[in-house]
Amino acid sequence: MSRIEALTFRGINVTPKTNWSFLEVRTADGRTGLGECTLANQEGLLEAEAARLAANVTGEDARHRNRLARLIPHAQGGLVAATVLSAFEQALCDLAAQRAGEPLHLSLGGALRDPVRLYANINRGANPRSPEGFAAAARRATEQGFRAVKLAPFEPMVWEEGYTDANRAAYAEGLARIAAVRQAVGPGVDVMVDAHWRFSPGGAAGLVRDVAEFRLFWLECPVAEANLPEIARLRGMANDRGMRLAGAESLAGLAAYRRVIEAGGYDVLMPDAKHAGGIEEIRRIAALAQTAGVEIAPHNPTGPVCHAHSVHLCSVVPNFLLLEVQFGETETFFDLVEGESLRFVDGAAKLPQAPGLGVALAAGPHAPWKRMDRPWLDPRLG
What we know:
The protein has 382 residues and is an alpha/beta fold. The chain is 37% helix and 17% strand.
């Protein structure tokens, strides 16, 4: 009765600049498990990979997720394949908890915390993109009880384009945005800055010095993860100035995180349930990180299904720090699913108590995903 009857890709357009992508796995006993595989601007490839996976797993026993959803580091397909496999693993975890008649966090061994503390990613909710616009978005978050906010202030700067007037202006504007947010939220709210890999190691060293006055909780992704020795150096600089260094949001599999942990790259690792290999793989990553004193703050700026899975996951991880959540982009985040409420309460998420994940996609119709000819994410950064 646990035989997989169908694996269905669901790409849904939720704003003029955002699609979210999901997998539904239906079994012969009438249950449906749900996972999220959002990967901006890759929806066509995700759909094709989901169809390939469906052809391989239809008819299999959904209880055997260790075999069916095993992430193999050298397998072909890159991040697209890892993202679809991660969503499949999420859905199988949902199904297992449904069969057991218990919420997912109990199937994972029981919660260490409830509620789960969140921080507000205000980046997509900031409009206009001026320092004042970012400050207003930060104030909206704190008014709803968030005690930590994050912004990505340095668009459209990319260091490979050189020491140009445009890059210097973008850097100055980024610092002004950070200053405005810090002033808007006051000293009692933590501020994080996502640099989105826009800096060279030398430029990042200057960035660490320049943002120290804003008393950041962490600086995130200053340089590409290929530069592990430089990341470790930057971590030391940041720590000397009272900041954590965070990153590694787009890696897949324990082996990829092992290199980062052994190199001493980050204070905070940010594995994403959509990319890293799913729920159980992140638990393995977190366990290895814990042995090195590294904290876990999952990357989670997309849709409600990844959020629900991440809330269950974060409740059971001992070295959990904070969970990211999109703030202010669209109310569809709450309306797209039915079941237990995912609404934030004083900057935190209550654990769902229904069997399984606790939510399912609401009945449609939903707008199908659409190609973004002018994507939100800078295509030079991935």
